[in-house]
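[recover] target loaded
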């Protein structure tokens, strides 16, 4: 490690020179695409609204009556309310944990570990990926704060843009292969599944999705690839641009709470309420994990959220700090709260609005996938389709509700392992996140950067990830055997 900060600098400079040409070209291309998208792309809500209109027109073209399309949209609008609330709590609880005082101390300690600029960027990438396996919101906020802590080190000239891009890799590369995967969580929770989708897929537990050996192998390969690309594409030496050079202020965040100003504030600042609530929660958590298989228990989205909320309360210690963190986290849930109802409406139009023949649009789309695919080619084709659609519908859970009725029906028809079909979606859906500014917003807010500052590096990751992911989806599929849907 000492060599990296001393004599090893020459080696790093040599690597930089070898990587400078192609990396620079990719960065310039990505910057141009980002500038164009920032000028011409509307808010993600507009894409969701347009998707409703397109699906409605498709159902009308398939012969569904106008009134039936409208009724299906209204019936489905609130069908995802439980799941919408659950995913909002995922974001809130992750944020609360990431900004808690113990997490801040861990960040300071972690920031002391790297010894060189490129090793610092690689380290951020690894932390981001690891954190995202537990909670995508923790990954974004915690990794962003780690980058700021590294940028305060005067003995390291870390490229702030490359480190910021590395902090996004958990969300942009692997989050959907972890515990907070929207599609895997939805498929494992029958109470949250739309009835139309439940009839096609049944319940698919974590053991058949994120805990498959094939899924974990894919996760390991993507982790190694992401860390290597992050390290080799990071500028060093004179080419690096620090936070100071980018005009980003790096003042320390305020840590101490104000003292209570009136007697009524006492309980807000006392840990007594927190301790009692967490003790009650611990009793329930102990009972739940003691009476169930831990993998089954954590796959229940309500259990998952309950655990992280209790951890957030405990780490915040004082109710006032916990409430302040919750208030700051709420803006990051706006997209989920307003877009998921539209996705619920889309799902019902796809599956409920049917002409006199009784064949809804989802069935036509399923037949199309069956017609152009085979048992061997379906995973790769589905992965490419999901990735392309993800550029326009940047919501893992909402897009799954739209996409699943017909792609899972096709998977059944082609006898493709249903859990692997979910993993195909998970791995492919994350790809467009690497260049789509929608999910970058919470991280960019922490870093004080714009999407165009980091997308050159994330685009480089996409160039490597896309063929690698599609190949693994195709190559690993034959190692799994199809089983009919399980209806508990």
């Amino acid at each position: 490690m000492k060599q990296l900060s001393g004599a090893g600098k020459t080696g790093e400079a040599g690597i930089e020179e070898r990587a400078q040409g192609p990396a620079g070209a990719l960065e310039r291309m990505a910057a141009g695409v980002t500038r164009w998208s920032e000028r011409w792309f509307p808010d993600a809500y507009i894409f969701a609204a347009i998707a409703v209109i397109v699906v409605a027109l498709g159902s009308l073209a398939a012969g569904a009556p106008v009134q039936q399309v409208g009724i299906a949209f209204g019936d489905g609008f609130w069908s995802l309310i439980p799941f919408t609330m659950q995913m909002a709590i995922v974001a809130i609880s992750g944020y609360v944990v990431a900004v808690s005082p113990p997490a801040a101390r861990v960040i300071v300690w972690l920031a002391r570990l790297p010894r060189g600029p490129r090793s610092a960027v690689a380290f951020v990438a690894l932390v981001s990926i690891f954190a995202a396996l537990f909670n995508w919101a923790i990954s974004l906020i915690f990794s962003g704060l780690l980058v700021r802590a590294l940028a305060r080190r005067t003995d390291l000239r870390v490229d702030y843009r490359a480190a910021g891009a590395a902090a996004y890799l958990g969300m942009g590369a692997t989050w959907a292969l972890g515990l907070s995967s929207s599609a895997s969580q939805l498929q494992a929770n029958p109470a949250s599944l739309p009835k139309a989708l439940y009839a096609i897929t049944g319940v698919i537990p974590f053991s058949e999705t994120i805990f498959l050996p094939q899924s974990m192998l894919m996760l390991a390969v993507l982790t190694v690839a992401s860390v290597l690309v992050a390290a080799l594409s990071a500028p060093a030496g004179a080419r690096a641009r620090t936070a100071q050079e980018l005009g980003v202020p790096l003042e320390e965040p305020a840590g101490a709470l104000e003292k209570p100003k009136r007697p009524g504030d006492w309980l807000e600042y006392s840990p007594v309420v927190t301790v009692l609530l967490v003790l009650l929660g611990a009793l329930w958590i102990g009972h739940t994990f003691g009476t169930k298989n831990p993998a089954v228990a954590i796959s229940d989205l309500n259990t998952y959220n309950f655990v992280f909320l209790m951890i957030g309360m405990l780490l915040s210690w004082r109710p006032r700090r916990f409430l302040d963190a919750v208030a700051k986290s709420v803006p990051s849930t706006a997209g989920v709260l307003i877009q998921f109802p539209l996705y619920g409406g889309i799902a019902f139009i796809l599956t409920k609005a049917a002409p006199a023949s009784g064949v809804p649009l989802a069935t036509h789309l399923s037949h199309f996938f069956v017609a152009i695919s085979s048992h061997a080619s379906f995973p790769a084709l589905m992965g490419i389709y999901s990735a392309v659609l993800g550029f326009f519908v940047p919501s893992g859970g909402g897009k799954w509700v739209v996409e699943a009725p017909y792609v899972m029906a096709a998977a059944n028809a082609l006898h493709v392992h249903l859990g692997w079909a979910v993993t195909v979606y998970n791995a492919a859906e994350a790809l467009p996140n690497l260049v789509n500014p929608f999910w970058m917003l919470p991280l960019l807010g922490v870093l004080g950067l714009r999407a165009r500052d980091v997308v050159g590096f994330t685009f480089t990751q996409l160039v490597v990830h896309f063929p690698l992911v599609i190949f693994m989806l195709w190559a690993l599929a034959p190692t799994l055997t199809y089983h009919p849907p399980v209806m508990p």
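[recover] notes: The CA atoms of residues 57 and 287 lie 50 Å apart.
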